[in-house]
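Methods — Computational structure assignment.
A single polypeptide chain was analysed. Its primary sequence is given first, followed by the predicted tertiary structure written as structure tokens.
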Amino acid sequence: MRMKWLSLIFFAAFSSSSPGFAAEKDTKPVAKAEKDYKICTVGGYYSGTDDKFLSGLATHMAQKRNILHDPICGALWRNAYKIGATVTKTGAIHDQAEEIAVKEATEFSRKVYEAVGKDIVF
């Protein structure tokens, strides 16, 4: 129970978006934790779903940002891995932490596929 509570705190702290950041974009940079650690949740989630393409891309991005071996990133990755495996197995979202991880993973996937498919004429 303690680990689940800690996971929820990490997800809330590093995964939620704040409307203040968007409005103050020109005057204040986006907080480092907000910008960097989302990729850890996404990578862990897709590792848990066994999606090698998206988890590999997230791994690459985390490595480029020098956070792949960061303890916070590791904790987020492990928790999101469990969520990805659970959601894949059950097909259901059970709590807020799972909902946040799925939302971030879905947004990442959408952005990746939009970028990849942007210039494809078929």
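Note: Confidence is low (pLDDT under 50) at residues 1-30.
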